[in-house]
Amino acid sequence: MFSLQGRTALVTGSRSGIGRAVAVALARAGADLVLHGRTDDLDDVEKEVRQAGGETTRWAFDLSETTAIPGAVAALPEVDILVNNAGIIRRAPAAEHSFDDWRSVLDVNLDAVFQLSRAIGVGMLARRRGKIISVASMLSFQGGVQVPGYTAAKHGLAGLTKALACEWATEGVQVNAVAPGYISTDNTTALRADPVREAEIRSRIPAGRWGRPEDVAGAVVFLASAAADYVNGHVLAVDGGWLAR
């Protein structure tokens, strides 16, 4: 039920953090991987994925070049599972948050997801089989502080997930998302380095700790598998209980 044998998965932003943990977990479940990074600095994750049993293809591409995505995707192997993980964050008070930063975050975190999902989804629809899983956020539900662009993008990502699911569920393609809570990754380095904010955040997590990238990977494997064939348009929180509090 959870085997991904014979499937090929593309994980964007797979060099480190959540993307790397997801790529390795998918390989352990039997999938081959298309590993993506903005640059070709993918040696370490490629080695780990191969040790987990997966064959690999490397794709170095800057997702901020959103109009070039359809052409770039055409050169990739056939993709059965798309994990839209790549993302960036820019922190500044809203009154000081530049439009350039706003546009950069929306380009990578939302526009690129639409372009990738559309370009790869066409093949999935033709085969009447496929899984698209995007990495949302607690800020798909909440406002956050000093991250207006990121919050807008993650709210939009939750909506896009539901919109695509409504259109594609009858065609055998499941579109869902995972919403990680506060996870120890590069994107949260500044928060974890701030003793006041770190303590405030951790005190509200019922699990009593920050999450690890591996905590998210199992949820992605589930959504990528046949076990989730009747799950459509869902945003699955993996948050240690944050939203329940």
TrEMBL record:
What the entry lists under PROSITE patterns is as follows:
ADH_SHORT
Cited InterPro entries: NAD(P)-bd_dom_sf, Sc_DH/Rdtase_CS, SDR_fam
- Its transmembrane ranges are none
What keywords does the record list, in alphabetical order?
Oxidoreductase
Concerning PANTHER family, the annotation shows:
2-DEHYDRO-3-DEOXY-D-GLUCONATE 5-DEHYDROGENASE (PTHR42760:SF5), SHORT-CHAIN DEHYDROGENASES/REDUCTASES FAMILY MEMBER (PTHR42760)
Q: Where is the signal peptide?
A: none
What family is reported? Answer: Belongs to the short-chain dehydrogenases/reductases (SDR) family.
Q: Which organism is it from?
A: Actinoplanes sandaracinus
* Name used for this protein in its record: SDR family oxidoreductase
Is the keyword Oxidoreductase assigned to this protein? yes
Q: Which domain of life is it from?
A: Bacteria
